[in-house]
């Protein structure tokens, strides 16, 4: 079976060497030496000022909202993984959805400003598929209205914008290190900021708001373990090689797919991509469903990512309706992420592309 992704695992002996040290120290969690080392190496790799390694990519979004006292309206994107909306709802905020750009599928800055009210406190945008939002435009709006900017940068590890890690932008950026990501720690995530005071607050938040017997604030258990840090230390030195391998798979798809009948999102100028995903967009949901069925018949499993448009979720019914989101609602019905991982064989890419091209051609002929 060919799944939409396959987690990279390092050599078992390499990981076991770290486990031996954990067994010797019997320091399993609670800000252990491997965790601190991984934080330092990630900061150096990304070139960011403050980075906290946490338990997953959702809890860091919640921490970001809490740390900046965001409790009212937040303008956000309807085209993202559900964690973006869930974090807002979980923290008692009101999502206000701004539609996306039709070219890169990131939040459209031109749709943000008309939605701002006296209750708007922040913009939470997603760098979709690891591609940067229109960062300067968003920052200009935020400064004009004194809003905070939180980036859900779950897909961006190893990607840069204008020579800097995409995680270095915004008041706070967050990332996921789930097993499906370009860089992973099995489960995990991080929160990044350039603000010293915010960094200190987030450090306390991660561990129940206290250090030893000193209590500083409310907090939550967002710590991660030495076992997860060990996985990260094994994989981090290989990230550039993994990105290069993904880039090759990306190129094979580009060579083989028939783009007269399908399309894919464009990259934002200034982005050096990490090849996190390979999304394609069909002419209709009906065509997409036929392609999915044809692929699954050959034990190939793509993913409708992102689907559905978050503004249509029934449990988000209490959200402010804002303006309609026709672009997101349309794209979410027609976009499909294809299998992409470093050791995906060229022959399998060829087979996947052939199935897609054939199904799309058949559907186009039926329409004619």
UniProtKB/TrEMBL annotation:
N6-(pyridoxal phosphate)lysine: residues carrying this PTM: 181
Give the domain of life: Bacteria
Q: Name one GO biological process term.
A: polysaccharide biosynthetic process
User: One MF term from GO for this chain?
Assistant: transaminase activity
Q: What CDD domains does this protein map onto? A: AHBA_syn
Keywords attached to this entry: Aminotransferase, Pyridoxal phosphate, Transferase
Q: Which residues form the active site?
A: 181
Q: PANTHER family from the entry?
A: PROTEIN RV3402C (PTHR30244:SF9), TRANSAMINASE (PTHR30244)
Q: Which family does it belong to?
A: Belongs to the DegT/DnrJ/EryC1 family.
- Indicate what this protein is called per its UniProt record: DegT/DnrJ/EryC1/StrS family aminotransferase
Organism of derivation: Spirosoma taeanense
């Amino acid at each position: 079976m060919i799944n939409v992704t396959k987690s990279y695992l390092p050599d078992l002996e390499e990981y076991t060497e770290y486990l031996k040290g954990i067994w010797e120290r019997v320091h399993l969690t609670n800000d252990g030496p491997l965790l601190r080392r991984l934080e330092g190496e990630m900061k150096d790799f990304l070139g960011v000022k403050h980075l906290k390694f946490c338990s997953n990519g959702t809890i860091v979004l919640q921490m970001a909202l809490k740390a900046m006292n965001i409790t009212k309206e937040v303008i956000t994107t309807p085209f993202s993984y559900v964690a973006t909306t869930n974090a807002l709802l979980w923290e008692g905020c009101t999502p206000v959805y701004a539609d996306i750009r039709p070219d890169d599928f990131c939040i459209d800055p031109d749709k943000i400003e008309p939605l701002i009210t006296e209750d708007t406190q922040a913009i939470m945008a997603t760098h979709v598929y690891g591609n940067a939002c229109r960062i300067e435009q968003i920052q200009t709006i935020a400064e004009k209205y004194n809003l905070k900017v939180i980036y859900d940068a779950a897909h961006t590890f190893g990607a840069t914008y204008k020579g800097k890690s995409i995680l270095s932008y915004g008041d706070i950026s967050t990332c996921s290190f789930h097993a499906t990501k370009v860089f992973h720690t099995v489960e995990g995530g991080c929160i990044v900021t350039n603000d010293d005071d915010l960094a200190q607050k987030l450090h306390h938040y991660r561990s129940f708001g206290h250090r030893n017997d000193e209590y500083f604030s409310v907090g939550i258990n967002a710590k991660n373990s030495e076992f997860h840090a060990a996985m990260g230390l094994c994989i981090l030195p290989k990230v550039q090689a993994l990105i290069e391998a993904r880039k090759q798979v990306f190129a094979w798809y580009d060579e083989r797919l028939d783009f007269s009948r399908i399309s894919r999102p464009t990259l934002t100028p200034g982005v050096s991509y990490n090849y996190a995903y390979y999304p394609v967009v069909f002419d209709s949901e009906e065509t997409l469903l036929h392609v999915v069925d044809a692929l699954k018949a050959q034990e190939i499993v793509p993913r409708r990512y992102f689907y559905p448009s978050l503004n249509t979720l029934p449990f988000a019914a209490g959200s402010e309706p804002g303006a309609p989101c026709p672009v997101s609602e349309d794209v979410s019905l027609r976009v499909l992420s294809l299998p992409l991982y470093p050791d995906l064989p060229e022959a399998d890419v060829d087979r996947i592309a052939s199935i897609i091209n054939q199904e799309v051609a058949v559907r186009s002929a039926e329409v004619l």
